[in-house]
Amino acid sequence: MPTSHAQRSFPWHWLPGAAVALAGCAASYALYHQQQSSMQAIARVRFEQEARLFVETLQRRMESHAVLLQGMRGLLTVNPQLRRADFERVARELDLQHYHPGVKNINFTRYVPGPRRAAFEEQARSDPHLDGDLPRDFAIHPQAVLPDYFVVDYLWPQGGNSGLQGLEIHSQPANLEAMRRARDTGGLVASAPFELHQETEHRTGVIIRMPVFAEPAAGQAGPARFLGAVGVSLRIYDIVHAVRTAGNMQGLALRMADVGPFNSEEPAPPQSLFESETRVGTSAMEYEQSVRVGGRRWSLQFQPVVPFLSPQESRLPWLLGSGGLLVTALLTALVSMLVLRRSQALDHAKETDTALRESEARLRAVFNQAAVGIAQTDSRTGRLVRMNQKFCDLLGYSAQELQQMRFQDFSEPSDLAADLEQLQRMLAGELSEYRMEKRYRRKDGSEVWVDLMVSPLRLEGQPEHHLAVVQDISKRKHMEQVLRQSEEHLRNILNHMPVGVNQVQDGKIVFRNDRHVQICGYDIREAPDVDTWWRLVMPDAHQREHAREAWLAACTAAVKNPDGAIRTVECVITAKSGVRRAVELSGMILGDSHIVTMVDQSQRKAAEEEVRYLAYNDPLTGLPNRRLLLDRLEQALAMSARHQLCGAVMMLDLDNFKTINETQGPDMGDRLLREVARRLRDCVPEDETLARHGGDEFVVVLKDLGADPQEAANRAEEMGQTILAAIRAPFDIDGQQHHTALSVGIAIFRGVRESADELLKRSDLAMYEAKAAGRDTLRFFDPQMQAAVSERAALEADLRAGLDAGQLELFYQPKVDQGRITGAEALVRWRHPDRGFISPAEFIPLAEESGLILRVGEWVMRSACAQLAQWSAHPVLGELTVAVNVSPRQFHEGSFVPQVLEALAASGADARRLRLELTEGMLLQDVEDTIAKMVQLRGYGVGFSLDDFGTGYSSLAYLKRLPLHELKIDKSFVRDVLTDPNDAVIARTIVALGTSLGLRVVAEGVETEAQRAFLERNGCHAWQGYLLSPPLQAAAFEALVLKRAGV
Questions:
Q1: Quick one: 822 and 922 in the same domain?
Q2: Residue 313: inside a domain, yes or no?
Q3: Are 583 and 632 in the same domain?
Q4: Are residues 894 and 998 in the same domain?
Q5: Of 341, 567, 400, 375, which is closest to residue 452 (Cα–Cα)?
Q6: C-alpha pair distances (Å), 527 with each of 502, 516, 593
Q7: HSE of 942 in the Cβ direction (CA atoms, 13 Å)?
């Protein structure tokens, strides 16, 4: 039926493209919306983490104030008659401004019964301050006659708080309520907020109090007597400011209020404690948390005031949505072009076929007018009897020439067999006629395609003939060939599309492109229909049922849509190779069939990963680039602020790289940079950052270098020296040796006081200082830190020289047992030629770190043994023992036992007079090896002492296995044995333990007669300390021993 003009003019070929466009836009919007939701969720998580971090920091601050009050209460409980000057001295040592920001003062509010008011005031005026001044104008105010008083008696600091001394807190209801609650509960209480009269702005404050009770005197019964309460006045603004200064509450607005007692069933009306300058109002994101402070509930409300997403993260949803729209536009154009080309080819083929059929009909109608070639042929011989002019023109022969020929003579041999077979069947009566397409050879040798229709012709009295009607179809054959080529071209385009395409009709897969086979792995033979395909790509029945339901629902919905577009369905398939692929299925309904497109999402993810890698990594070395470096440095700064740990930024610059690049070419320079990067990777731990900063510069970021800046500098220097040594070694490139070196600049950081860019600038400046100092070296940005590192290196060099020059000396501190000197502890001293005596606390740790402790320990052992041998001939000194401290590294050396025995043998000293003092820590390392060494030396008579007992992690399980001679009570317990009940209990326990194990117990650090007497009463008769003598040179020690012995 002819096609109407409206049908031909309507651009039907754009419908598939429109469907692809709609599906792509929908997918792009869904991708944008999903990513937008993810970014909002990330922002909320970061906001709430920041808020919780502030709350935790605030709670730790309040806990530190409680610990402060507990210590002051303990002081007043132990000494109820504590004087004003002593209180102020202790308070001054607390350094409130530095360690407790926000604390305006610490005070002791004393309870005064009404009748004792006058006596109390008189006593207060006679109790001097720390500076010796008397508070002569001390008076209880405001003036009022009350049955009892709560008066601010002791106060520190005086500056800015002078008006508070003598204040009777009945005038402050919130303060009075907290005081009475502290007395009644006996625990820590906080007041409701009130105004601090000594402040001019931000006056909101609270007082945290802890009651003080005096225990009844010994032998007396009754409850403890209430003395008053110690308290700290807190200015809320300062506390919040201190937390913010520590790196918290970044980008947050805060409203903090007191909502009454914590255990109250109904919250009281809120009383404002603090509100940010950026007000807390309505916002899409809020976070609220309550904390308990001294029995009251504080409500904290947070809102963000800055975005918690980076600009890149904020733009990510728009970028993904835009990329999806771009891909949609390209696919729309491609599909529309393919459909248009196919439609044009089909229309042309239909028109050609119609024309041919009309031509055949006309030929039959005007048979006698010779519109077609006609020939009468002898069926048995194949000889042509007669033909029309059209037939002659078709073959290029004359009628006379053709009458001398058989039709076999001008037939194409390859087509002749089929023609003869059909002819025989017709002659046999099986066919009434037959028709075929075949090729003839013209007289000029050219080939012509003809449509041959043969029917039998029977004439009376003549042999059997047949009539052949021949039509030239060469042009049609040519058009068919063109059409086949066009279809092949279209198929080739579909096979090279980046998405899989197939056509489904009546449950059969009638077409699939190569990409579809590549994604799934199954061709038309393996998966001829939809059911087989689903079963192969989803072996799990439950998963397959769920996916097919989703796809059928999408197809059903598409039937109702005017455009017939099938919405995208995501699923995971298993390819023939066993690889699982995430794919997107979509398509379009086309009559009784539908087109299905399949997109492999793994390609997109791989592309995204490649883009991400190129965005954050240097393409030459594979190291992080400056962008990723800045991100990791910001993370290191945040971690440093959160954990109060030090870190370091190291700027590395190749020396003379420009010369190598210019003389040997950029290719050699690039290869050298790759080799340098490889060596740097071997030096830098995997959890630290190594990045290429640009050109011939590299940057190393070290995160966790400890809390001490000096220790951090030392560790950074060790890393720098390791890197310098690695780069000094020659580089072998194509058989040639290349030498280079580095200049290293180091900047130490702690917290977020400096930005990432500022730290890079500092390390860069330090690196140029290293270049100015001669290259192949390192420098610190901080001049003081550089000086400290240099001083440490100089001190190590001096110690090495001092060992060789004999600058070390042994001093001896006497040990006393029941009043008699029985021995001494040998202590090493270093007499520096320029600095005089250097403290062991300064050079012993340095010796431990540098490994010189082995030489120092060997020298001490030989010197102590030589002194023992010298004293052995004296009747008094020969009875002394000498104790030598052994370092852990020295003890665990495999040569330690032979070293001790060699020192004894070389000096001739009596091994029974030698004591080796070991610490608890070293005994825990390889206990079996430790016991074996001790038993071996004990067999020669050497005794062992467990030094600093009680400070480590002693276990009775191994303690009783050790061949010990004595235990030593650490001086930290002896120092406070009279004032700290815990230390007293520990000292008694050590004495009892040593006695039960049959060990001698020696107390270290005895400085007063009272300490000695306490130890004597509790069974410890042996001691050493400044009460008798400090460590002495050998001659002075000998004189002291002989004097005590009466010689």
A1: yes
A2: no
A3: no
A4: yes
A5: 375
A6: 12, 12, 17
A7: 25
Euclidean distance between CA atoms 11 and 265, whole angstroms: 75
In the block, residue with structure tokens 């600058």 = 807
Q: What is the mean pLDDT of the chain?
A: 85
pLDDT at 368 over 60: no
**From CA 496, how far away is CA 708, in angstroms rounded?**
64
Judgement on whether residues 819 and 951 belong to the same structural domain of the protein: yes
Nearest to 1021 by CA among 1045, 1000, 1039: 1000
Q: How many Å apart are CA 421 and CA 438, to the nearest integer?
A: 13
Helix, strand or coil for residue 833? Answer: coil
Burial class (CB in 10 A: 0-12, 13-18, 19+), 830: buried
Is the bond into 113 cis (omega within 30 degrees of 0)? no
Q: How many CB atoms lie within 10 A of CB 836?
A: 8
Q: For residues 110 and 244, state if they share a domain.
A: yes
pLDDT in tens, 393-420: 888 898 888 888 998 888 888 888 888 8
Total residue count of the chain as it appears in this document: 1047
Number of Cβ within a 10 Å radius of residue 479: 18
What contacts 834, CB < 8 A, 6 or more positions away?
A: none
Respond yes or no on whether the N-terminal peptide bond of residue 157 is cis (omega within 30° of 0).
yes
Structural contact between residues 127 and 153, judged by C-beta atoms closer than 8 angstroms:
no
C-alpha–C-alpha distance, residues 1032 and 1042, integer Å: 14
Interatomic CA distance for residues 274 and 239, integer angstroms: 10
Report phi then psi at 576, rounded to 5. Answer: -60, -30
Listed range (147-161, 240-254, 835-849, 951-965) with the worst mean pLDDT = 951-965
- Determine the longest span between alpha carbons in the chain, in angstroms: 175
Alpha-carbon distance of 983 to 172, in angstroms, equals: 42
- Beta-carbon neighbour count of residue 47 at 10 Å? 21
pLDDT over 70 (residue 295): yes
Same domain as 584, residue 557: yes
Cα-trace Rg, the chain: 51
Domain annotation covers residue 339: no
pLDDT at 487 over 50: yes
Domain range enclosing 702: 621-781
Strands (E), 183-333: 189-190, 194-195, 204-214, 225-235, 252-261, 271-275, 287-293, 296-304
Are 230 and 72 within 8 A, CB to CB? yes
935 inside domain = yes
pLDDT band at 476 (very low <50, low <70, confident <90, very high): confident
Same-domain pairing of 471 and 585: no
**How far apart are alpha carbons 795 and 846 in whole angstroms?**
8
pLDDT at res. 718: 92
CA dist 137 and 705 (Å) reads 55
Do residues 594 and 681 share a domain? no
Distance CA 814, CA 827 (A): 11
Is this prediction's pTM over 0.85? no
Q: Is residue 649 within 8 Å of residue 749, measured between CB atoms?
A: yes
How far apart (Å, rounded) are the C-alpha atoms in residues 66 and 100? 11
DSSP string, 349-386: HHHHHHHHHHHHHHHHHTGGGTSSEEEEEETTT-BEEE
Number of domains in the chain: 5
The residue among 1001 and 604 whose pLDDT is bigger is 1001
**Angle, in degrees to the nearest 10, between helices 541-560 and 530-537:** 140
- pLDDT single digits (tens) 426-438: 888 888 888 998 8
Query: Both tokens of residue 296?
Result: 């009251």
In which band, very low, low, confident or very high, does the pLDDT at 320 lie, cut at 50, 70 and 90?
A: confident
pLDDT in tens, 1-49: 444 444 455 566 667 777 777 887 888 777 777 877 777 778 788 888 8
- Residue 871 near residue 880, CB atoms below 8 Å: yes
HSE-up (13 A, CA, CB side) for residue 1005? 13
Question: What is the DSSP-derived secondary structure letter of residue 267?
Answer: P
Residue 379 tokens read as 């069926």
